[in-house]
Amino acid sequence: MSSQRIEELENRVRLLEDELARLRHSAGFTIAAGAPMGLPGTIAQSGSVVGIEEMIATVDREGRLAFLNGPMATFLGVEDRKEASGQPLAALDHTALGAGFVGGIVDGARGAREPWVVERECPELDPGLLPGPRGRARPQTAPVLRIVATAKGGSVTLVMQDVTEIKWLERNFARCVSPEVLVRMYQTPEGDFLTPERREISVLFADLRGFTRMSNAISPEEVHLAINSFLAEMVAAVEKFGGTVDKFVGDEVMALFGAPLPQQDHALRSLLCAAEMHARHARWAEARSAADKPGLGLGVGVATGPVVVGNVGTPQRLEYTALGHTVNLGARLCGDAAAGEILTTARTYEATRAVLKGGLTDLVDIPHLRFESAGMRQFKNVLEPVEVIRARRA
């Protein structure tokens, strides 16, 4: 192959890489109407929030390999990229995904008007053939490949991405955090946010007063609609202030501030979220009242202190959560809060005050909060009496 031809191909690859960089930040890919032949289990969906290292090859109009980069050579089992150039793709297309896997995608792309983009879960594929995650262990799930094939002038440029990690993050966190937080989680080096560690955070609990009693008075279908509409408002409040929904327990929602990503203003964010929850709850209750449906009061508890955060569970089922006295205290405060109340501790108050005094937050238009002592209280399974602070939006 002439040096001029090689230079042309390298220029095309650079252009394609630029195109992929733009795709990473777009709302989504253009999806092929159908999956290529021989690709069972293909997942076709919109683009992920992040792309990762690509495996790239170009196949000319005669079906010969015109170019392949190092990661693609590893995937195909090619030891010498130079010797592979000019060889028929069919002679090298014998991966664990089946003979003709790459060729099937190339043929599909030639018949498509737009770039062909599909995703496929590949349990039969050896993860060692893929570019490794950036400095951290690979999730213990089947590899997921995103495949982009673009035809031009008879040749096809194929790009494959190992999106296993980002798909794992999406499955586990996409419904718990905002898209912005998900991107930051992926960009955090060394998987720090998943390593169990001791950290100071703020934990928020919120639930309805009298929900069990109401559930006995209305049909299960009505309970379902009520709880879903209520939790939607609570989740919106958590996302607004950069928190993470940890779990739902019936009508109760547990949220974390300062995990999985550190936030130096986590105490402030948790209290602002609590105030936002009450505002959203008031509108929710008003709408239910207007529809002649029962509305219940909301109690919120917030505690700040050391916890251990990380994955908890078994190899078959894991849950990212926080453990420790602070979590228990937050739950007790929530249980003690009357309808319309936000109960917290002196530690949360002092942390919030320090953040505001030092300007240690990037939040803007911060509403004024008022605090008052609710006295010392003794909670079940909490050894020492706790000074409880009542917070509210002025």
Q: What share of the residues does DSSP label as strand, in percent?
A: 25-35%
Instruction: State the major sheet.
Output: 8 strands, mixed
Low-confidence stretches: 22-52
Radius of gyration: 27 Å
Q: Determine the CATH superfamily of the largest domain.
A: Nucleotide cyclase, GGDEF domain
* Average predicted confidence as pLDDT: 82
What pattern of helices and strands is seen along the backbone? HEEEHHHEEHEEEHHEHHEEHEEHEHEE
Q: What is the structural class?
A: alpha+beta
Number of domains: 2
Number of strands: 16
Distance between the ends: 75 Å
Which CATH class of the largest domain is shown? Alpha Beta
The count of helical stretches stands at: 12
Helix fraction by DSSP (H/I, runs of at least 4): 25-40%
Q: What order do the helices and strands come in, and which of them pair?
A:
Layout: H1 3-24, E1 42-43, E2 54-59, E3 65-68, H2 70-76, H3 81-84, H4 89-92, E4 94-95, E5 98-99, H5 101-110, E6 116-121, E7 144-152, E8 155-162, H6 164-173, H7 179-187, E9 197-208, H8 211-217, H9 220-240, E10 244-249, E11 252-257, H10 266-290, E12 298-313, E13 318-323, H11 325-336, E14 342-345, H12 346-358, E15 369-377, E16 386-393
Helix pairs in contact: 9-10, 10-12
At a glance:
The protein is built from 12 helices and 16 strands.
What does this structure look like?
The protein is of the alpha+beta class. It has helices at residues 3-24, 70-76, 81-84, 89-92, 101-110, 164-173, 179-187, 211-217, 220-240, 266-290, 325-336, 346-358, and strands at 42-43, 54-59, 65-68, 94-95, 98-99, 116-121, 144-152, 155-162, 197-208, 244-249, 252-257, 298-313, 318-323, 342-345, 369-377, 386-393. Strand 2 and strand 3 form a beta hairpin. Helix 9 packs antiparallel against helix 10. The N and C termini lie far apart (75 Å). Mean pLDDT is 82; it is low at 22-52.
